[in-house]
Amino acid sequence: MSDSMAPAKQSRTSRLSSTTSSRREDSLGVEQQSMASNNGAADGQEQDKPDTPKLDWSKFKATFTVKHSPIPKPSHKASKKRKRGAAAREPMLEENEFDKNLSTLYTVEPVKWWEDTRRYRKFTISTETFRLGDTVWVKPDDSETVDAPLQNWVAKVLEVRAASEAHVFLRIFWMYRPEDIPGGRRPYHGKNEVIASNTMQVIDALTVNGKANMRHWTEDDNDEVLDADQLFWRQTFDCPDGSGTGELSTLRKHCIDEAPFNPDTLLIHCDACGLWLHSECLEHEAIRQAHEENKLPEPILVPASQRSAAMSQTTPNGHVSHTSDIDVKTEESERGKIEPVFQTEVISGTDVKSQIILKDTREGHEGEEYKKEIHCLKCKALIE
User: Fold this and answer.
1) CB contact at 8 A, 251 and 219
2) Residue 91 pLDDT > 60
3) Of the candidates 195, 102, 212, 191, which has an alpha carbon nearest to the alpha carbon of residue 147?
């Protein structure tokens, strides 16, 4: 979701139309930002600015580009105050609410066109109103070929600008889908997970495809379980210039394999030693024991922490290629092993005893089920 990951041109859809929602009843389909706004990157309204743009916007054919500058030393901290004329070219500071360490200095070009717009607090598309700070779905480019659980892009609205009803722009931070970062989706990424970033871009307001209900999941021990359809973020990607390379923040690690947790799966807590256990690790251990008890060859099991899913990479020309990064076992290491003959399911809850259900798939044993108690993979204590 940078210049390489998110195309500069985004098609407008016929069903989207900008409608008037201004208290000033001006005709822009957006509400003018009040002087009391606390948005640091767009602080205050320029009182000496004319109500109508100076430039002929029918001739605007450019695409707004965000340029980034290095953060200066504290003694030379950039001002949040907006200045007119040549001073307006000075980089502005955008503090990142996801992570203060991801704050960025930016300028928007071409400057004369950007400075000719006015700032607003909200905008309306069809019958839906959006405000500063909202998380929104963004319609992908028509050339989008990434196979992802989330079909739309996700963005955080930082600023609303308009020159006319036909020229409404949003300055946004992208919320990356796992498929859009270098290396692609990791095994621990949930199907409704996005990654907060400081990658900034200016997009057409008419590419917005609806409001997204997103929450920050802190993954604390006492944090509530996410709903199945809840959009969330817990990780950040430091990539201000949108070059496609950047630093992905680390996550809390669990279980004996010391790997992050995929919230689409289960974590089982051992009260004896305090360790959180991946359900997949427990299932693999149950399969190994079942093979051994039935005098079967060792099963071929590859933990999620030792593999990654098929990943999508965006090339400089904007095309997406798919490659595989799955660890392939050598013939020597897999010699004598077989595919697991048992299917497993971990059962756990506040009103049920924790256990593993094994289903036999061998010929002559189809449908046979076995129940196994769950023991901690570290301290071997029984988990009720």
Assistant:
1) yes
2) yes
3) 191
Confidence of residue 69 (pLDDT cuts 50, 70, 90): confident
- The answer to the question of residue 196 being in a domain is yes
State pLDDT tens for residues 161-171: 999 888 999 99
**CA dist 124 → 30, 34, 127, 210, 274 (Å):** 6, 17, 7, 10, 50
* 206-246 per-position pLDDT tens digit: 999 999 999 999 888 666 778 889 999 999 999 887 776 78
What tokens appear for 306 in the block?
A: 């030792």
On whether both 223 and 123 belong to a single domain, the answer is yes
Spatial contact of 208 and 270, defined as CB atoms under 8 Å apart: no
- Its domain, for residue 201, covers 30-248
pTM of the predicted protein model: 0.76
Phi/psi at 128 (5° precision): -105, 130
Is the same domain home to 79 and 187? yes
What DSSP character marks residue 381? -
Of 178, 213, 248, the position where a domain reaches its end is 248
